[in-house]
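User: Sequence in, structure out. Go.
Assistant: Echoing your sequence, followed by the structure tokens.
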Amino acid sequence: MEKRKLGRTGLEVSVIGFGGIPIIARSRKEAVQVVKRAYELGINYFDTARAYGDSEEKIGEALKDVRDEVIIATKTHQRTREDAARAGIRHSLRNLQTDRIDLVQLHGIDDENTLKKAMSPDGALSALKEARSKGLIDFIGISGHNPYVLSKAIETGEFDTVLVSFNILDRVAAEKLIPLANELDVGIVIMKALGGCGGPLEFPQRNARFLGKPELDWPDASEFIRYFGQEGMERARRSLRFVLAHNIDTVILGFRSVEEVEYAVKVADEFEGLSEEEKEFYKFGEFPPEPYCRECGVCKCPEGIRIPVILRWDQFYTFYGIKNWTRSQYEKLNVKVNMCTECGECEEKCPYNLPIIKMLKNTEARLLSLR
């Protein structure tokens, strides 16, 4: 298994990491078997969180005999110093059956207000720093789904690693966050390379971008198969290769079974870069043409129009050629673009100075033209 340096931590991590959500649904015996098989195949980076049911306990049980040979990363979803110090870290140490944790991350920091709260004098970050000073944890990271907010976070210099969603249809992180993290020597961990925590049958997506389950309600199978293939494992292979081609450190995948672990490791071991055909097909290194929405979430429509979601679907339509499905999703919205009063609040708040009103109208015109 290829190893890459996790930023300034100096830790050498396997390019494939173990995501701890799916084993919640497995018995303890089954879960331990999956985790141990991952270790046997060279995976040394194991990611979990207190919020993931009994995931910490199962990972702790599976790795207790090889604790010094692996890197364990967990997360605290608490926002205050008191909660994170008394409930979070100590609880995780017990669950993981260890006296120290390699990496603890602030969990799910997706907006600036949450970031400010967690980084305040009485916030969770101060508890992590105290725990680090006591030798209970080695490094501090941050996780979330909003590259705009995460970029602001790592610019503070407080975080050793950043965990962000990134995949073929969600490449915003590659525009600024990933280059910035490399510049600052912040370790880069990728989640949702396959779309979520359900294993290789999932479709790449990011939180709240879809209203339904794409694998069930995709109206035109050719649009889906074009990018990811018909069969589940083939979808995983294509998605994983795309992510591995970027300047990142490790990709955590949510594994349910030994078979999934073995398949992902095989894909990684065989990876030697994208072919020229793959680069052209996936528009490698490209982004939607300006102006395009980065989904920073700063704009809030008083009429309830889901601006980032709608503009994301426009990228599906224009950049990826996913048209029929995009139309079906737009039709499900209760509040459509025609409810816009053109108050201009969204444009005043947009840090990218996008002509949002015009973009929304153009998007609706395109989507409705499919009727």
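User: And one key feature?
Assistant: The longest strand covers residues 137-144.
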